[in-house]
């Protein structure tokens, strides 16, 4: 009965879209005009997706100060003017070398390459190199290997685990100048591009051909496809298009000693020996620098619909997910989860009007992508009506056009940015069986509260403990939002969170990777045999350990 009372206003909102298919076609036509091959991707030397507010410290503390137990590896050489001269001679162009080693003017230019997106980690790098070809990457690495110079491969620097910035004085090899789309097969959907191509640019190019990049995430305007492959990024549509372990067809990479590994296969099937490219997917720059990627891209759907709804309990979220899979099956392309705490923070930062009139403990965003707008929207409307009648969903709304689709997505995609505006964040990215997924947020909140660290006023370091994530992939993002970074908070959270996950045989890194943050915790999700084999792989590909030291293993 309660559901029936809610249904009328919702159904009014359900009077619905024909717009999506047309909008997609219009957008494609515009892109077709604006893009010509080969495409140079835009890239900024300041790798940020969003502007930073004054609430956040302009610069982070140096990592070496925050974690004094990490010591510089004395085997690595100190950078000399001779080294810098070699790189200048090799790369030629002024813009390819940012030199803070022999010039004192470069401090401001180097800073964005030293600090991570969250402003949690900060290195002491004095030299940034921006190669423009595989051959240049190869020569850089050969020289570094011969001279024991440590290197951090860097894409768009949007990583969330401190993997993309140096800890000490490692040289940053930034891939932003290797940003060309090289080939696209309009029949098979195989795209070949350089690693520094920005994800959104690759996707816009594909849109002009009627295809879609099989990965989408909030940092798409800054992250590189080489960075995506190197972190094995999951994102918002993994539920539909699967992991990069399945969609990457081939890649080219350069090993620490300069050897070029050419595995740039464009075939869907290739069972000729070990599938070595898989080792580079998710290797976070520890065994080589990815220079080119070949990826299988699906047809872009003509129709897209988005629904946003409120639910009274996590149990109901699970029921809704079950119903969505069964009723929307082949057109379901995303099923995302947000708790009230995360939405309150987005509201606080953006001041935008909430999608629903009332507040609920949980919200879900469902996206469908299919070939027939009318059919898909009818299916989605029928689904929403059904789950409301069954009392699973308390209230819901359907986007009427592309503007509304974007604005509903912003409530999910905007959480990371909103958090970054409010101070520091301790971020955990975990995977556990769905039934336990949200319990972690509740247990963590209780623990932080018991420790006297959580409160509404300034004296408490923690503002909120929130959860959101990719429900469709059993991937939760537990975020502890702080007014300031405080070692007491980290002590309460670690290893508590990792132990909690290990007890449930979960993963402490579902999609963001290990980086610096989780290096010492790998044992909570991988047994000693696995870690031993990983170390053997690292030693085979990078025997001197120059690639991304202090991270991962
Ligand atoms: P970087 O941050 O530059 O690097 C990440 C790691 O890869 C580092 O270890 C670096 O050394 C290595 N690396 C980079 N390029 C290369 C290369 N060419 N060869 C070898 N190693 C390389 N992640 C998800 O999985 N899902 C999400 O939904 C998601 N959403 C995000 C939303 C926001 C707002 C932000 C800021 C980040 C998000 N991330 C997400 C995290 C991040 O992993 C991704 O943004 C992205 O995959 C990183 O790409 P990048 O080019 O910025 O890599
Ligand atoms: C997301 O899903 O929004 C990203 O993984 C980023 C985050 O965890 O904040
Ligand atoms: Zn995510």
TrEMBL record:
<dbReference type="GO" id="GO:0071949">
    <property type="term" value="F:FAD binding"/>
</dbReference>
<keyword id="KW-0274">FAD</keyword>
<dbReference type="InterPro" id="IPR016167">
    <property type="entry name" value="FAD-bd_PCMH_sub1"/>
</dbReference>
<keyword id="KW-0479">Metal-binding</keyword>
<dbReference type="InterPro" id="IPR016171">
    <property type="entry name" value="Vanillyl_alc_oxidase_C-sub2"/>
</dbReference>
<dbReference type="GO" id="GO:0005739">
    <property type="term" value="C:mitochondrion"/>
</dbReference>
<dbReference type="GO" id="GO:0004458">
    <property type="term" value="F:D-lactate dehydrogenase (cytochrome) activity"/>
</dbReference>
<comment type="similarity">
    <text>Belongs to the FAD-binding oxidoreductase/transferase type 4 family.</text>
</comment>
<dbReference type="GO" id="GO:0006108">
    <property type="term" value="P:malate metabolic process"/>
</dbReference>
<dbReference type="InterPro" id="IPR051264">
    <property type="entry name" value="FAD-oxidored/transferase_4"/>
</dbReference>
<feature type="domain" description="FAD-binding PCMH-type">
    <location>
        <begin position="121"/>
        <end position="300"/>
    </location>
</feature>
<dbReference type="GO" id="GO:0046872">
    <property type="term" value="F:metal ion binding"/>
</dbReference>
<keyword id="KW-0862">Zinc</keyword>
<dbReference type="InterPro" id="IPR016164">
    <property type="entry name" value="FAD-linked_Oxase-like_C"/>
</dbReference>
<dbReference type="Pfam" id="PF01565">
    <property type="entry name" value="FAD_binding_4"/>
</dbReference>
<dbReference type="InterPro" id="IPR004113">
    <property type="entry name" value="FAD-bd_oxidored_4_C"/>
</dbReference>
<dbReference type="InterPro" id="IPR016166">
    <property type="entry name" value="FAD-bd_PCMH"/>
</dbReference>
<dbReference type="Pfam" id="PF02913">
    <property type="entry name" value="FAD-oxidase_C"/>
</dbReference>
<keyword id="KW-0496">Mitochondrion</keyword>
<dbReference type="InterPro" id="IPR006094">
    <property type="entry name" value="Oxid_FAD_bind_N"/>
</dbReference>
<dbReference type="InterPro" id="IPR016169">
    <property type="entry name" value="FAD-bd_PCMH_sub2"/>
</dbReference>
<keyword id="KW-0285">Flavoprotein</keyword>
<comment type="function">
    <text>Catalyzes the oxidation of D-2-hydroxyglutarate (D-2-HG) to alpha-ketoglutarate. Also catalyzes the oxidation of other D-2-hydroxyacids, such as D-malate (D-MAL) and D-lactate (D-LAC). Exhibits high activities towards D-2-HG and D-MAL but a very weak activity towards D-LAC.</text>
</comment>
<dbReference type="GO" id="GO:0051990">
    <property type="term" value="F:(R)-2-hydroxyglutarate dehydrogenase activity"/>
</dbReference>
<dbReference type="InterPro" id="IPR036318">
    <property type="entry name" value="FAD-bd_PCMH-like_sf"/>
</dbReference>
<keyword id="KW-0560">Oxidoreductase</keyword>
<keyword id="KW-0809">Transit peptide</keyword>
<protein>
    <recommendedName>
        <fullName>D-2-hydroxyglutarate dehydrogenase, mitochondrial</fullName>
        <ecNumber>1.1.99.39</ecNumber>
    </recommendedName>
</protein>
């Amino acid at each position: 009965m309660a559901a029936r009372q809610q249904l009328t206003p919702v159904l009014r909102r359900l009077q619905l879209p024909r717009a999506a298919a047309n909008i997609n076609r219009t957008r494609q036509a515009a892109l077709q005009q604006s893009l010509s091959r080969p495409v140079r991707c835009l890239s900024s030397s300041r790798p940020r997706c969003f502007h930073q507010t004054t609430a956040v410290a302009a610069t982070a503390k140096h990592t070496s100060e925050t974690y004094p137990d990490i010591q510089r590896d004395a085997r690595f050489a100190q950078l000399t003017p001779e080294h810098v001269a070699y790189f200048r001679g090799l790369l030629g162009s002024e813009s390819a070398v940012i030199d803070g080693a022999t010039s004192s003017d470069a401090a401001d230019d180097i800073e964005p390459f030293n600090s991570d997106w969250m402003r949690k980690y900060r290195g002491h790098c004095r030299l940034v190199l921006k190669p423009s070809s595989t051959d240049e990457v190869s020569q850089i690495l050969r020289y570094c290997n011969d001279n024991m110079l440590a290197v951090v491969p860097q894409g768009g620097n949007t990583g969330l685990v401190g993997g993309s910035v140096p800890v000490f004085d490692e040289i940053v090899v930034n891939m932003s100048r290797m940003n060309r789309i090289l080939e696209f097969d309009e029949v098979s959907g195989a795209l070949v591009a350089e690693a520094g191509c920005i994800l959104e640019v690759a996707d816009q190019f594909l849109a002009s051909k009627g295809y879609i990049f099989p990965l989408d995430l909030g940092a798409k305007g800054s992250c590189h496809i080489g960075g995506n492959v190197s972190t094995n990024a999951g994102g918002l549509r993994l539920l539909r298009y699967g992991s990069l372990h399945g969609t990457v067809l081939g890649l080219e990479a350069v090993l620490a000693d300069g050897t070029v590994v050419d595995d740039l296969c464009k075939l869907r099937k290739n069972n000729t020996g070990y599938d070595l490219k898989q080792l580079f997917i998710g290797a976070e720059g520890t065994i080589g620098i990815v220079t080119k990627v070949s990826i299988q891209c699906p047809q872009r759907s003509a129709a897209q619909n988005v629904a946003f709804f409120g639910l009274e309990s996590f149990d109901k979220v699970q029921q809704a997910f079950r119903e969505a899979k069964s009723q929307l099956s082949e057109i379901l392309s995303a099923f995302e989860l947000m708790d009230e705490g995360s939405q309150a923070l987005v509201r606080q930062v953006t001041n935008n009007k909430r999608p629903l009139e009332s507040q609920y403990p949980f919200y879900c965003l469902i996206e469908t992508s299919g070939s027939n707008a009318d059919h898909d929207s009818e299916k989605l409307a029928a689904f929403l009506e059904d789950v409301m009648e069954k009392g699973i969903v308390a209230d819901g709304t359907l986007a009427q056009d592309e503007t509304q689709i974007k604005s509903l997505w912003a409530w999910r995609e905007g959480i990371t940015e909103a958090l970054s505006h409010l101070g520091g964040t301790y971020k955990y990215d975990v995977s556990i069986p769905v039934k336990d997924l949200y319990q972690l947020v509740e247990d963590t909140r209780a623990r932080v509260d018991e420790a006297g660290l959580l409160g509404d006023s300034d004296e408490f370091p923690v503002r909120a403990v929130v959860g959101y994530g990719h429900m469709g992939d059993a991937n939760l993002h537990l975020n502890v939002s702080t007014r300031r970074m405080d070692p007491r908070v980290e002590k309460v959270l670690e290893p508590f969170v990792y132990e909690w996950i290990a007890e449930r045989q979960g993963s402490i890194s579902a999609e963001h990777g290990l980086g610096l943050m989780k290096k010492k915790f790998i044992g909570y999700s991988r047994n000693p045999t696995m870690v031993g084999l990983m170390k053997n792989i690292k030693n085979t590909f990078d025997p001197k350990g120059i690639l991304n030291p202090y991270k991962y293993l």
